Amino acid sequence: MPADSEPSPQAVRNPALLGRVPNEELPKTEAEWRKRLTEQQYRVTRQKATDRAFTGEYTDTETPGTYRCICCGEPLFRSGEKFHSGCGWPSFTAPIDGVKGDTIAEHEDRSHFMIRTEVTCRRCGSHLGHVFNDGPPPTGLRYCINSSSITLDPEKPGGGDRPGADGR
Ligand SMILES: [Zn+2]
């Protein structure tokens, strides 16, 4: 393994930073989740907190790549659907497998005297954010996602990746 790809201490603690975590290696208790995640990641994904607007790591990121779940490593969003919403959180017009896909689950959220649609990672149940009807074409949707819930795998320019696997 080349020296520049040695996992960081954070990645040793949370294997989801490196890739999709196999089912049998996913935490089963809140204590186990707490061990893997940072304090803020834990509060957002497992306790449905929200990153403060404009403070998240990925709010204005334009790097091409795939955003995966910070808890289980499942690919959730792509940079191609990301747009500048100005709302202070990373925003996407659709999940990686489309609006009616299987990756993201939706739930009615009646907290804070509003009716909103919460979105979670269907695989591990982590809270991601909310989806609103004020997004741009082609979907008209705005998936408003906490940076703390996701991790970006930047696209590798020209090397190593499976060629043509993205189905363009
Ligand atoms: Zn997940």
Counted beta strands: 9
Average residue-wise pLDDT? 91
Please identify the structural class as seen in this structure. Answer: alpha+beta
Total domain units: 1
Name the CATH class. Answer: Mainly Beta
- At the fourth level of CATH, the homologous superfamily is Peptide methionine sulfoxide reductase
Instruction: Output the strand order for the largest sheet.
Output: 3-4-8-7-6-5
CATH topology: Metal Binding Protein, Guanine Nucleotide Exchange Factor, Chain A
Radius of gyration (CA) equals: 16 Å
**Strand fraction:** 15-25%
CATH architecture, by name, is Beta Complex
Q: Give, in order, the helices and strands.
A: HHHEEEEEEEEE
Shape: globular
How many H/I helical runs?
3
Helix content: 10-25%
